[in-house]
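Model it.
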Amino acid sequence: MKVFQVQHSMKKRLLFSLIGALLLGAVQAQVTVKPRVEGQTAADVFITKVELTSQFTIVYMRYEDPPLNIQDRWLRKLNPQMQETSYSNVAVDPESDLRVNQKGNLYSFKFIKAVGIPVRPDKRDVQPGDVINFAVYFERLEPGMEDFDLFECRDRANGWRCWNFYHIHIKNPADKTKKDTKAPAVAQASKKTAEVATVLLSGQVYDAVTKEPLEGKIAVLRAGAKADTLRTIGSTGVFRKNVRPGSYQLSTVVPGYETMTATVTVKDNAVEKDFYLRAGKKQSAPPVATAPVKPTPPPATTSSSMEDLKAEVGSKIELKNILFETGKAVLLTESQENLAQVVAWMKKNPTVEIRLEGHTDAIGDSQKNMELSIERVETVKRYLVNNGINASRIEAKGFGDTRPLSTAKSDQERKVNRRVELIVTKK
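Modeled.
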């Protein structure tokens, strides 16, 4: 009987210990099954669960290689050698990290390890129809961080396709013991900003020669708004900002490198814009971006044809007969003859760099006009690039209806405001 009591007592202690361990694990671990993800770059990999332990943020994922279609299956039957062919391979980039934007501050949580999948440079071959379940371990997110990105890499020329996920929503409540912290204010602010639809504007800054990422700043200007300055995420060169739809002018500020400016149009989907900078004049502060920069004044006489255009900085010409579909950025076929002359002139002057400036009349919404001018001038740039001109030689800017040549109201007189101009920026 005594033995039984001892055994019974031991069983009770073991039971209580087990219950305590389970309760402790429940406190330390927080699990979100099938978290809501607002955006991702690949359609063949999914996040099935996110677990927060006392040490790690564990992201459980599932990769599904698409099965062969009927035609490919028949080809494999006819050619047995195709059975041995590996269609693709997978791995996790050790440079992956989790990123959180909280109250305007960016936080990064490093990659620790992966289970069930190789880490580059190792890789695993996969066949059509294969399914891989794996887990990736990162540093533990801080309590209260319930919206994060998983940034693996940028798509690379060597064929790697990255698995990036944006705005992953999980359960990770703030520490209740810190009642006097500013956590409630953060939550209130995020609720307020959630009411305004925003889109992710992101990119990366590189050295144009070495292709290495650069640390620096990006000046962001929207027409009618105060300029904002972003810092890259350390030496990764990555910059990110949630913005409202519209047109934005971005200017790079990297010590020891030339400034590069680009205009992007943000609509409903995330926009990425990368910069490849050349070493040049050093900078110490972002450029003043309180208003669009005025174009370089034209010389005393503006060229009337591409043949007369001089390969001198400041030389300018209005590209005649560059026609688009009404209200669209689609070139009409009759524009090709004049654009072919631009291509020929730039090939004849291989060191020259230019700026294309797009303008519209003042009919309609000014914001729409700005977007249309940007889209049209980008279309012209794309035509030149597709016909053998290096994109690095062409800068494209749209000014909408902000720089009219005529303020007259008749349609015939307003027509002069709808134009594309070419300005030589480097000899």
